[in-house]
Amino acid sequence: MKPTLPDWFPVLRWARGYGRGGELSADLTAAAVVTLLLIPQSLAYALLAGLPAVTGLYASMLPLVVYALMGTSPVLAAGPAALRSIMSLAAVGAVASVGSADFIAASLLLAAMVGGLLLLMGALRMGFIAGFLSAPVLSGFVTASGLLIVMSQLPHLLGVPLRGSNLGVFVQSLWQQAGALHPLTLGVGLAAMLALWAAKRWLQAALLRLGLPPGGADLVAKAAPLLIIVIAIGLTQALGWHGQGLAVVGSVPGGLPPFTLGAVFGVAPATLQALLLPALLIAMLTFVEQISIAQAFAAKRRERVDSDAEMRAMGAANLAAGLTGGHAVGASFSRSAVLHGGGARTPAAGLLTALLLGTVALFFTPWLYHLPLAVLAATILMALGSLLDFGSFARTWRYSRADFAAQALTFGVTLGVDLVSGLTVGVIASLTLYIWRSSRPHIAVVGNVPGTEHYRNVLRHEVITHPHILSLRVDENLFFANTRFLEDRVNAEVTGRPELRHVVLQCTAVNTIDTSALESLLGINQHLKDAGVQLHLSEVKGPVMDRLQRSDLLQKLTGQVFMTHHQAVAALAEAPADRSA
Amino acid sequence: MKPTLPDWFPVLRWARGYGRGGELSADLTAAAVVTLLLIPQSLAYALLAGLPAVTGLYASMLPLVVYALMGTSPVLAAGPAALRSIMSLAAVGAVASVGSADFIAASLLLAAMVGGLLLLMGALRMGFIAGFLSAPVLSGFVTASGLLIVMSQLPHLLGVPLRGSNLGVFVQSLWQQAGALHPLTLGVGLAAMLALWAAKRWLQAALLRLGLPPGGADLVAKAAPLLIIVIAIGLTQALGWHGQGLAVVGSVPGGLPPFTLGAVFGVAPATLQALLLPALLIAMLTFVEQISIAQAFAAKRRERVDSDAEMRAMGAANLAAGLTGGHAVGASFSRSAVLHGGGARTPAAGLLTALLLGTVALFFTPWLYHLPLAVLAATILMALGSLLDFGSFARTWRYSRADFAAQALTFGVTLGVDLVSGLTVGVIASLTLYIWRSSRPHIAVVGNVPGTEHYRNVLRHEVITHPHILSLRVDENLFFANTRFLEDRVNAEVTGRPELRHVVLQCTAVNTIDTSALESLLGINQHLKDAGVQLHLSEVKGPVMDRLQRSDLLQKLTGQVFMTHHQAVAALAEAPADRSA
Fold first, then answer.
1. Which residue of chain B comes nearest to A125, CA vs CA?
2. Rounded to a whole number, what is the distance in Å from the CA of A125 to chain B's nearest CA?
3. CA of B497: which chain A residue's CA is closest?
4. In whole angstroms, what is the distance from residue B378 CA to residue B387 CA?
5. Residue B396: its chain A contacts at CB < 8 A?
């Protein structure tokens, strides 16, 4: 099915009749609350990506508008998000030095490339590619990324220049600089962390006890991060902390997002090539994260998520980010929860968020000058809880040692080498593991359960067998990874049984036979023929049989295809020896 | 099971009592015939690899001895083989210029690396890695390689310098040089091809009609390639063709293989890194080829092939090749057929072949001076039949369009770009295709067949369903590639059915649930819980259930696990509504 125009732009569906059911006031309320959260987050995540703070504001305007027009989820909050920022820093940091004009241009290009790849994958319905990221690999990667984010923020919190591209470099740097930490910076940062933690934990309940109505208490609690920032700005300015060495955001240019097509296209081709793999990994990660967030909320609302539409929408949003001065964007779980809790009813909530944030960008950026970086670092660190999931390692270890190995490998390489290598190694490990598992399927020699037409494993049941018939049941699809195993097994079973005349493969559990397995069956057929043994098949499923009709296996087969395994054994037991076959 | 010393060296098993049953005379006869074939082939395949002819002789001595001590197949002929030579040329040609000392050293290093990788894979029982090469990809690659071999030999046959690293370069070069071809070279080459073809087709029958005994006729027919070479050498020397511009082998140093450890270790680390991927691909290819040849003959003889031992043996043989001046070696189908037909009974046949060839290397190399390169090219071209399998494309197209796409892509990239890229792209295509297929498993909504306890697809059968119960049967293992699909499907089925209270997953066809799928089931369980629907499982297989016991799914599951699907539906139909769950 080719997607139609309303499939590409679901806004064409929900915009008709918008506002008649009170959607506008619901969406506006939710948008206002999410904007309070988005202002500090967008500034912080821009710094996390190694970019000027204003980049975060730009990434929170046009991308949100685009997502609102093309997305299907009313509560999915698109925009800056921690993981993408640290990945962007790692990827772009490998091709340009942080802070340079090249670095900014390459960051925009990366966002545009992520967008282009997501759009392409969405248009070609290639969402399955995201399946390459298995859950253990993803959680190993995300937890390691969380630790890397901590490492990246500690310099801002301690007031010393540390380098933290990986664990080894970081620990060495921390050791050297431990004596040089800046007490004022550390004090401001820790105070902000404490305030954020206390606000999250106690503020709402305290306000309710003070007699505030529930709605008001909730709004104040949600605005707490912004309030803490306002207080920090006020104190810094009033007490002249910047002059005492406290690092601040500095001047943030006001106004609407610039058009940065020129910057994106000005990047050297070698940079483009170097960013391709990171862009692909970020695109996969963004999609996986987005769909899991969208599905979690859709389930609560009994709504349907259209994966392809979501992929296209986030692709267009990233393209918009790259072309209007923003870094790569994704879905934010915390802000989506706020939209859901705030009662958002259509994607217009995102559109309204962008409008509110645009107002801030137009009129309030001068106020951000004295915002301490340590406070933004505190904001990032306090939001990391959802990324660090050490319990997942224990759960995976208990459930599957092999999956744990892939998880630990991903975690180790991400932390010890870099983010792109970590995720790449993880994907390769998942695939190798899966091929390894499928390469040795369960194959049972079966025999007849007396008095029935059932055939069961000879090792587990008392069954009847015939010396000149070998019955094998294969409990797996036949495909390239396990053809050799099947050949080996048949070969081994036939060796040393000179009385054997018939091999019957019971195909109950075989859902597909690919071309490699077909060749393999032809080979087994020929090998058995050379050894004077006939090959038969039984209980072949309809679709598998349809496909086999299009090959020459059925003509070349020395034996027959039987409807049931019992029919096969009954027929072959009566006419035992046919050496000529 | 850890392999024992006799597992590593099967010679310890068959050497005891060797010769008492007439093995020596049988093995010696087979070895003599195979040596007649090996002399021209070893010289030709060395030239194919861009190396001096003597390299082929070195690759035919110690490697054969090592394989004889460690291999399990009495008839597998190890040594120089066409595919490995052209791959070696392609890989080493990318890091050093053909003919230089660096090129020779890198070729030896490549052989040693292939050997090291095979030994490692054999010791770690990682033969499954070869499963990554699916049959269509392999045949697409082999056919393209065959064409590249033709391209590489045409210059020797036409007497003009052509460059043929890929199709584009070759055609361009052919166009430019067409006028410059050397008639004498072409004449000698075509005459040799004609003679080889005629000898293969008619010689044996003609000799029998002339009254020769069958054994003698057979031996003469097998020695024909060597006889043609002897005649060509005689004519070239007698008529002074070398002086008229016919390229010849030139001086071949005599004596036993040198010890070339120094050359191998003298190669730059960057070269080692560049050769790693080609070495891995050659190792995989060598193993796949070797096992399919070994199994074909083992089946005829009702013998067992030990894949791990074979891998170790060929690994050690390649290591030996690299350390004694030889290029990468593999199994030869044509020479294995000669060993089998000649009556070889133990791996000693390979040992004896090496001894006979050593005699040639010691005493007869001066005779090779006037051997025309055009005749060796003819030898190679006439042996290509088994590599070019165009019929395979038609068969694959008929059987599976997706597999054909992977095959055609591999063929195209191998021919149009290079051998290493072709095989790499093929492996990636196979994997992607498999993940794509598994990412959308067959999932059926099932209902009760009236009057039975069977449940069948509601779309294909007249069945009974309940509005508040959804029964889903998943016809595939649950793993990372298809978890999203399952989530989407459950999500879609639940949307718009407010009366739904229970979802039952029938797990008859689920052989494994990996960690990703476990997380996914936990997510589905939570999503359904949020929507007021209980999740149940039925007919979970024993091993799958054992593993689930080690997770927290069974505690968190809102519903129950039922032995049979019918029990589930019967129980849930009676107690319909449990909104609180």
1. B436
2. 11
3. A302
4. 15
5. 515
CB contact under 8 A, B516 and A136: yes
| B127: nearest Cα among B309, B345, B5 | B309
Chain A: closest CA distance from residue B509 (Å): 7
Region A158-163: mean pLDDT is 74
Q: Looking at residue A130, what is its pLDDT?
A: 76
Residues in CB range of B491: below 8 A, 6 or more apart: A295, A298, A299, A304, A305, B527
HEC string for B37-96: HHHHHHHHHHHHCCCCHHHHHHCCCHHHHHHHHHCCCCCCEEECCHHHHHHHHHHHHCCC
* Contact yes or no for A514 and B403 at CB 8 A: yes
Band of the pLDDT at A162, cuts 50, 70, 90? low
Say if residue B539's pLDDT is above 60. Answer: yes
Q: Which residue has the tokens 């995976």?
A: A396
> Rounded to the nearest 5°, which phi and psi values hold at A445?
-80, 125
The verdict on a CB contact (< 8 Å) between A509 and B509 is: yes
CB contact under 8 A, A395 and B551: yes
- Cβ of A431 within 8 Å of Cβ of B430? The answer is no
- Report CB contact under 8 Å: B291, A495: no
Could you give the CA distance from residue A96 to residue A113 in angstroms, rounded to a whole number? 17
Probe site for chain A from B393, B514, B521 (most A CB atoms < 10 A) = B514
Whole-angstrom distance, CA of residue B320 vs CA of residue B313: 10
| Strand A455-457 with A469-474, pairing | unpaired
Q: Kindly report, residue by residue over B183-203, the tens digit of the pLDDT.
A: 899 999 999 999 989 988 888
Binned at pLDDT 50, 70 and 90, residue B105 comes out as: very high
Predicted TM-score (pTM) of this structure: 0.77
Q: Look up the ipTM and state it.
A: 0.76
Rg of chain A over all Cα atoms, to the nearest angstrom: 31
